[in-house]
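User: I'm designing a mutation panel for Circularly permuted ATP-grasp type 2 domain-containing protein and want to avoid disrupting the core. Could you give me a predicted structure to guide residue selection? Please restate the sequence first so the numbering is unambiguous.

Assistant: Good idea. Sequence first, for numbering, then the predicted structure tokens:
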Amino acid sequence: MHSNGDQTAFDELGQSLEQPRHPSLARSLGTLSLETLSQRQHVAETDLRERGITFAVYGHGDGAEKVWPFDVVPRPIAASEWTMIEQGLTQRIIALNLFLDDVYGDQKILDDGVVPRELVMTSESYQPKLEGFRPPAGVWTHVTGTDLVRHNDGVVYVLEDNLRCPSGVSYVLENRELMKRVLPEVFQGTAIAPIEDYPERLLQTLLETAPTPDNPRAVLLTPGIYNSAYFEHTFLAQQMGVELVLNSDLVVQDGRVWVRTTHGLERVDVIYRRIDDDFLDPECFRPDSMLGVPGLMDVYFRGGVTLANAPGAGIADDKAIYQYVPEIIQYYLSEDAILPNVPTFICSDPAQCSHVLENMAELVVKPTNASGGYGICLGPRATKEELAACAAAVRSDPRNYIAQPMLTLSTVPTIIDGKLAPRHVDLRPFVLYGSSVRILPGGLTRVALVEGSMIVNSSQGGGSKDTWVLQD
């Protein structure tokens, strides 16, 4: 099993079977012919279709629901490297949580000039109504999805932090179950870190941050069936054994939140909300929200319910604030960042902005608050017209843009039209923060299925692989 391709990219499996990075995995995969792998790939795709494992793509011409794209060749990570990644993610999330606590509290980091005050105050996700508020147990970031990439220098970089409603973990769990069904022999003789207990750990994390310790109850609040991550909402609620609720199932009275059940109203202590801040409560945020629960924020401000993640947490994943995360870690923990950032230019800084405008053809320009791969301009691959449009957008609203050098994402062999070919990947590990930090081993490996493409988002035609933290 060998794939030629982008020679400059780091191959996660090793450049060839003769020089594998992970011998045990190479042995088990090496026993399977390409024909067998292709057959199993077909079985996997049929399985996903039959079980209705889909995601929705907004604004897509040929129907919104897509079968989840999956590739059977796994992405391996050595145990020793995973330990380093885990330490780096733990450090990062503790520091970002302290940053949120400070920004909505005493604002010492802003007074000390470590992070520019204006950058925080002009962040789209900054919620002035939360100033002076501290969430139950002091946790702002219950669930984080941190996107990691490996450049051709072999170094793992943090590409971005997702602290609002990061999605994708249901596919991590589904990918593993699917692999066990379609490639059971590869699991023989390969020690892979288990991930099955994630829903249990997620529930534990949520309940640890409940305002009342006595027999707390959690629910998962979904915007409904038309949301692109609705499959995940139903999956996680079912796996955790909690109710999946719409806003109409919740009611605020007597200073608490209640859920309507067949036995009458029952108290809710923790809401794992998969609805954006602005839609949570029409009395506090957007008055036109049809998805929120009137009076919810009033209960929250009085400490009567936990919202996960905390409203306002999005400032810590603003792509302009991202540049300061190494300083944030140093400020609160007096440690150097274990996982490096990608060098970043902030367009709200006039000097950095002129550098970006002069070198746009070499850089990747991103909106500071968008997600899903939308609005990104890949300078080295953009047309003159696209570069001109991007430059005009940056000039009209510099605060809304950052730029970074274009990284060469590492590759993993992927089955394309019955053959193996390298395709670029990233990794989204999931970090839980309750009474302690817990990290799911591995995470969601997203793969750009289009040759040469670096855009891995499923909303932009990417797929996924099972991620194996090898314990040998």
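For picking mutation sites, this is relevant: The CA atoms of residues 361 and 381 lie 8 Å apart. DSSP finds twelve helices and 22 strands in the chain.
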